[in-house]
């Protein structure tokens, strides 16, 4: 893991670190299973960011102002969160056109989040398809 990412994740409370590490590993696993090549990991706007050539960046974070939640952020200029709302609106809490809000006290909806990650990491291949080709 990139040392800057490791330092950033270490800043969070332990319960948030565990959940963010779960997302970190899931993003890397999805990218690997799709054969998307190296994942660029960096800090963008103070948040851990993941990107691949075929997709739109995903950022993850925990905010002191929302201590019971953690977030997956997406580029608000994409159709990603709007698509998540249509397909998974009954199962996910979504923030405008930019984020999935996850609860620290609930189990990660792994199947749904995996699919959302797949859509983000392949966004450039899907962006012109209705509902991103779902």
Put the structure in a nutshell:
By secondary structure, the chain is of the alpha+beta class. The chain contains 5 helices and 6 strands. A hairpin with a 6-residue loop joins strand 3 and strand 4 (69-74).
Query: Strand portion, in percent?
Result: 15-25%
Instruction: State the separation between the terminal residues, measured CA to CA.
Output: 32 Å
Question: What kind of assembly state do the chains in view correspond to?
Answer: single chain
Radius of gyration using CA atoms only: 14 Å
User: Number of DSSP strands?
Assistant: 6
Biggest sheet details? 6 strands, antiparallel
Shape summary:
globular
Spans of 5+ residues with little confidence (pLDDT < 50)? none
Number of helices: 5
Mean pLDDT: 95
Strand order, main sheet: write it out: 1-2-3-4-6-5
The helix content, as a percent range, equals: 25-40%
SSE diagram, text form:
Layout: H1 3-10, H2 14-33, E1 40-44, E2 47-51, E3 58-62, E4 69-74, H3 80-88, E5 93-95, E6 99-103, H4 110-121, H5 123-126
Antiparallel strand pairs: 1-2, 2-3, 3-4, 4-6, 5-6
Helix pairs in contact: 2-4
């Amino acid at each position: 893991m990139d040392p800057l990412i490791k330092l950033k994740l270490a800043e969070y409370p332990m319960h948030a670190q565990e959940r963010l590490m779960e997302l970190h590993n899931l993003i890397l696993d999805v990218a690997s299973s799709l054969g998307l090549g190296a994942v660029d990991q960096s800090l963008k706007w103070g948040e851990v960011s993941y990107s691949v050539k075929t997709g739109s960046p995903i950022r993850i974070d925990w905010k002191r102002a929302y201590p019971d939640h953690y977030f997956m952020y997406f580029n608000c200029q994409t159709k990603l969160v709007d698509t998540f709302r249509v397909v998974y609106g009954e199962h996910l809490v979504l923030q405008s056109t930019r984020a999935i809000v996850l609860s620290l006290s609930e189990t990660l909806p792994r199947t749904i989040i995996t699919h959302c990650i797949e859509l983000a990491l392949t966004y450039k291949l899907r962006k012109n398809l209705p509902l991103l080709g779902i």
